[in-house]
Amino acid sequence: MNQLGVGLYDNFNIRPLELYGWNGDKPFVSRVIREYRPQVVIEVGTWKGLSARTMGFEMKSYTNAGKIYCVDTWLGNYEFWYSQDKEFDLKLINGYPSVYYNFLSNVKHWNLDSIIVPVPMPSNIAYRLFKEKLKLTAKVVYVDGSHETEDVYKDLSSYINLVEPGGIIFGDDFNKESVKAAVFRYSYDTNRVYKVAEDNFWYFEV
Length: 206
Prior knowledge:
Blueprint: H1 27-36, E1 40-44, H2 50-60, E2 67-72, H3 100-109, E3 116-120, H4 123-134, E4 138-143, H5 149-159, E5 163-171, H6 177-190, E6 195-197, E7 201-205
Helix pairs in contact: 1-2, 5-6
């Protein structure tokens, strides 16, 4: 049985709107959706949903049947576990992060629950689910999970296989050496040409 998306927004206590994020509201994110007009988007790394909101609002302007699959563990990167920055607050309950419910709550506040489907698992497991079981492809894939070089490289190498012809895979933080190294390496290994847009976004057209 495919349990993805079943009862996602049922019977939970909606938390106040609380939005923190990085780069998800930049103009390039909106422009990608306007130009490619996807029916399906895969986002690898979503946190509290800033970029999913941006993409969801754009999709609502031209479709009522679009889906954004947001892949994340909602467990945070290692720095989340020692930082005092409120943007890294994991909302621990008995030592376990509950920030996932902040994401769900935000989606409800934005009335995007018909579009946004959270996929609460590591990116490599989600990739296998999409490719091997669901046969899911997307016109747009946004890679914004871990920014460690090996992690970016693996996400890029995997998820580009789910991009439909004529689609795009993109990410942000090209100004970070770890991200830049992953993009350089993938481009070299595959002979694919990457491009860089404003606000340090990188992308490959498929």
